[in-house]
Amino acid sequence: MQSTQSQKARIERHKSKSGAILLKSFGNWTIDALRDVSDKLDSYSGEYRNTSIQWDLSNIGEIDSAGMLLFIHHYDLLKSNNCPIELTGIKSEHDKLYALLRKFTAGKSVLPEAALSSRLLKPFNTVGRKCIAFVLDTMEFFTFIGEHFTSLFNSLLHPRSIRIGAIVKNIEDAGVHAMPIVALTSFLIGVVIAYQGAVQLEKFGANIFIVDMIGISVTRELAPLITAIVVAGRTGSFYTAQLGVMKITEEIDAMRTMGFDPHCFLVLPRILALMIILPLMIFFADLVGIAGGMFISHVHLNLSYAEFLNRLQNVLEIKHLWIGIAKGPFFAWLIAAVGCFRGFQVSKNTESIGRYTTISVVNAIFLVIACDALFSVLLTELGL
After folding, report:
1. H/E element holding 165?
2. Contact yes or no for 60/25 (Cβ under 8 A)
3. Element (DSSP H or E) covering residue 267
4. C-alpha pair distances (Å), 132 with each of 127, 129, 158, 327
5. How far apart are alpha carbons 171 and 175 in whole angstroms?
6. What's the protein's topology in the membrane (predicted)?
7. How confident is the model over 229-240, as pLDDT tens digits?
8. Which of 49, 61, 122, 145 fits 81 for a cystine, CB–CB 3.0-4.6 Å?
9. pLDDT 10s digits, 13-44
10. Where in the chain is the domain with CATH 3.30.750.24?
11. Between 210 and 105, where is the model more confident?
12. Residue 282 contacts residue 224 (beta carbons within 8 Å)
């Protein structure tokens, strides 16, 4: 028999041989686990009219007043759509809660007019919910950032509390182990730029300018951006999954119970480690990317390595290299902060780890690109 404990609320829809719709409810219908099932019930309530429905409630574990009110709301909504409903498997304790809440909802059930307006307003309702969720999520993120800076300030006041060993370990995990994929990606980026640029420059006999294109574009923009995206996909997701598992196994709650600050012990070492290692990884990516471009220039344009390096010394100003490297700490902070923040948001089920890991990677890549665009505008305006 499938256990209903520690499961979030869900509902499945089937079609019986008689043509009736069979709704099967599962999990715990409690206030913190109703989001998905609420969306599905909204869909069913708007879809069915004059349709026989059998609603199986036997697999519901716990149910609180929020879950019961959600059930009553959609039960009345389907009734108002002239849907005959047969309830099966309702438990005695659930029946008592149903009877109690029915006293306060009697006469307040959804009227047909309300059902019509509900369908018309549904798109606005959906947009409104997403806007509210976005605002709440943003406020929660700023709260997390505030806690992070408080922990950082306290650590600076008490340097011995900084966990040097954890920082070194995270540098190894996030940096050293990522070198092969960063090297391969950077080399291929150099190859692509050189190959595409060579085709165009060869038409005008301006082969030597391939060095300018590779040197500036790789060091200033592409190496920092591609390295940050690789790190966001690899290390950012790792941080989210790692902290999410600690959340599920209640290790973070245990730390708080014992008086340890999770931000000081878990978040700060990860963020500092990534801020230290990412600029070095960008420099490494610069070298490999230029090497890839130099190789293709030699093969495709017959440009010797000596000519390439001599031209590179003349055209590549040191400011382009420093600008690319200077972006590293900002990108690293965004990636690590988002990864840790999403890890702390994981709820106590394994499904949410995958969900928040995906959100973490998407958020981190978007913020890195947005930050890079901001740098481009700002540095251009400053004449750099």
Report:
1. helix 164-174
2. yes
3. none
4. 9, 5, 39, 32
5. 5
6. Multi-pass membrane protein
7. 999 999 999 999
8. 49
9. 887 777 778 888 888 888 777 777 877 787 78
10. 10-106
11. 210
12. yes
